[in-house]
Amino acid sequence: MSGFRTLLYKEILRFWKVLVQTVGAPVLTALLYLLIFAHVLEDHVQIYPGVHYTAFLMPGLIMMSILQNAFANSSSSLIQSKITGNIVFVLLAPLSYLEFFLAYVLAALLRGFIVGLGVLLVGLLFTDIEMRHPFWILAFALESGAVFACAGIMTGIWANQFDNLAAVQNFIIMPLTFLSGVFFSIHSLSPFWQGASHLNPVFYMIDGFRYGFFGHGDVDPWLGLAVVTPFVVLLSLLTLVMLKSGYKLRH
Amino acid sequence: MKSAVRLRGVEKRFPRVHALRGIDIDIEQGEFFALLGPNGAGKTTLISLLAGLSRASSGSVEIMGFDVTRQYREARNAIGVVPQELVYDPFFTVRETLRLQSGYFGLRRNDDWIEELLDNLGLSDKADVYTRLLSGGMKRRVLVAQALVHKPPVIVLDEPTAGVDVELRQSLWAFIRRFNREGHTIVLTTHYLEEAEALCQRVAMLKEGRIVALDYTANLLRAGAKRRLSLELAPPELPTALLPRLLGREGGRFILDLPDYALLEDVLGSLRAAGIAILDMSLAQADLEEVFLKIMHGVAP
């Protein structure tokens, strides 16, 4: 297992060395959303009784940061390694595809969590947030982060150039995370969009995560878990099959 | 004893290219072996198969008796590959790179060996420099060190001296020779045929995915190309008795075929008998380049 530990360590060291870019920048972005939306909406919108809009916004921003950064970490690490060619160092080593998978997923999760924690700490400067059910917070953070870490691995391996990756990031990941109830409750939507949101797995991720903070959600967190868990299993399996086949890595 | 490298009926098909067409090679342990061939002959494809970077369409590839796909852990532990491209990880220093590579191979305390590698490859004063900041030659040395962190019994170098200055080339080969003396098997591809000639006991020549020659370097040199005698004569004419030996003219010189030194006496005798004086004479040995060109194109240069 020491090969796996080294790969995990290398993946962590990779983003750790450029922390300003990999953690500082996304925390700042989240902070800007917080300032702008909170400033505009704080006095006009109250979604859950007794919960300020700024407080309501926090869990959504944290989850969005976890998801986007988990995805960014595995995908950008892989595409950089592929384009610069240094992926060969890992491919030459006696590492199994399972070790490869775990190292990339865990490093991506860690980066997502560090950014998430950063957003939380910054958010605490502006508003009080309660954390009623840490179990749900952790469960949704882990599962959702893992889904996006896997998606990042698949995208990083599939993409031939940075353009491909940027397209997935801008046209799939961003809209998916933005339109999943980060900034609003889906109850404020028209019935059609409410229905559509129920088909979006990211909605359940954010809603369940938020439930962990306030004990309020649009749907029951168990339902959320029942929706998200199969996605964790499905994406993990797809990623493992892809890695095992050597797709785009070992011709 | 198991072969260091064993290929049987290896085929590699890409969507548009049939890169390898039935390769059989056994490289014995302790050999210094060269893979030669023009660009696109399949050398790098072959090395990718040995390294597990690519999978054969059919046939079997074994390193030290381990199948590269079924026993990939053992096979990859047994081989160290210096890739052709100057690749590096921009995030790490030379020492970090070597420590990470050791770790991938399960070696957690490898600093003594890393120091020795750095020292022998003239990298000691660059150990804590980011690899991306090094010159091309230095990056090449780092790649060599990376391939050797786990002291693999089989060392594969894919054109390690392309674009490398003479001094580094010399010191690199001295270092690799040392490994060979200690029993490591060396497989290299190179465009510098004099290198293969000087270093390798055996040579395989590839052309369009097939092996067109596989023999001891000495045998190839003996059989492949003729020894040639170059003469400048006065008057500049050749006695009729020597005409069958004439290979051609180079400027004012006559190039004669001389398969055996003993025949030199005949040539000199004929010239003396015809009253022709020798102004200048030189004897050209076949070199691997000539053999190579002859095998690749079917003609002497």
Question: What brief labels describe this structure?
Answer:
heterodimer; A: 251 residues; mainly alpha; globular; B: 301 residues; alpha/beta; Rossmann fold; 2 domains; 6-stranded mixed beta sheet; 4-stranded antiparallel beta sheet; 14 strands
Describe this structure in words.
- The complex is a heterodimer of chains A (251) and B (301).
- Chain A is mainly alpha-helical and 251 residues long.
- Chain A has helices spanning 2-16, 19-41, 53-84, 87-91, 97-124, 134-158, 162-178, 191-197, 201-214, 221-245.
- In chain A, 76% of the residues lie in helices and 0% in strands.
- The radius of gyration of chain A is 18 Å and the shape is globular.
- In chain B, a hairpin with a 2-residue loop joins strand 4 (58-63) and strand 5 (66-67).
- The relative contact order of chain B is 0.13.
- Chain B has 10 helices and 14 strands.
- Helix content of chain B is 34%, strand content 28%.
- The A-B interface holds A 2-3, 5-7, 9-10, 13-14, 17-18, 81, 84-86, 88-96, 246, 250-251 and B 14, 48, 51-55, 72-74, 76-77, 79, 81, 83, 85, 87-92, 96, 100-108, 146.
Strand order of the largest sheet of chain B: 6-7-8-3-9-10
The proportion of strand residues of chain B reads 25-35%
List the domain count of chain B as a whole number. Answer: 2
Count every beta strand of chain B, where a strand is a DSSP E run of 2 or more residues: 14
Mean pLDDT of chain B, nearest integer?
A: 88
Number of helices of chain A: 10
Domain unit count of chain A: 1
Oligomer: heterodimer
End-to-end C-alpha gap of chain B: 41 Å
What's the alpha carbon Rg of chain A, rounded to whole Å? Answer: 18 Å
Distance between the termini of chain A: 26 Å
CATH architecture of the largest domain in chain B: 3-Layer(aba) Sandwich
> How many DSSP-defined strands of chain A?
0
The rough form of chain A would be described as globular
% residues in beta strands of chain A: under 5%
